[in-house]
């Protein structure tokens, strides 16, 4: 007999649908009805799990951090680099692979922050918090590498990361390698 598969719980289907749609089309470009359609649930089911679209967007951002920030960028950098400095540079190797994917979708945290345009709004706050998580990872790597002013370094490195994402969105497939070259200069400047 074949293995019995349990159906994916409704909350997970909703999150999967929202993840796919919000990643590709943004939060303003996707109505709740599209998420419901993709998840194959009733509207009441969605609202049993998420009180509002804002709650769903915040859950999407949390999932994006798990999948993208932790699962792909941080894990990929640590896997590809033997030292903290190499791991910082390897972020751009991860980005280079990503930028060349047909499914390249930009940074959801930046996109949602710009779509919301309000740091005081719960969705804007969540976006900024997830961007801070990335800077925290960068600060940690800077500390591990013994770089001076890990906070200042992390902010500058994050600008390189965000700039390369925007450049890739413009069609510059070599943006990650360009940012990596600038990163080498930044690393040299921050060595004690």
Walk me through what this model shows.
With 192 residues, this protein is mainly α. 74% of the residues lie in helices and 0% in strands. Helix 5 runs parallel beside helix 8, helix 7 crosses helix 8 and helix 8 packs antiparallel against helix 9.
Low-confidence stretches: none
Work out the strand percent.
Answer: under 5%
Structural class: mainly alpha
Tally of strands: 0
Level of helix content? over 70%
Whole-number mean pLDDT:
95
Radius of gyration: 19 Å
Number of helices: 9
Order of helices and strands: HHHHHHHHH
Shape type: elongated
Distance between the termini: 64 Å
Biggest pleated sheet: none
Quick summary of this structure?
This protein is mainly α and 192 residues long. The chain is built from 9 helices and no strands.
Highlighted features:
mainly alpha, 192 residues, elongated, 0% strand
Topology of this protein?
Blueprint: H1 10-25, H2 32-39, H3 43-49, H4 53-80, H5 84-99, H6 108-116, H7 122-144, H8 150-169, H9 175-190
